[in-house]
Amino acid sequence: MLKTFIYNMLSETGAISSKRVIAILGALVLFSIIIYSVATGKNIDYHIYDGLVLVVLGAAGITAFEKVKMASATPVTETPTLPNNLAQ
Question: Count of domains in the chain?
Answer without folding.
Answer: 1
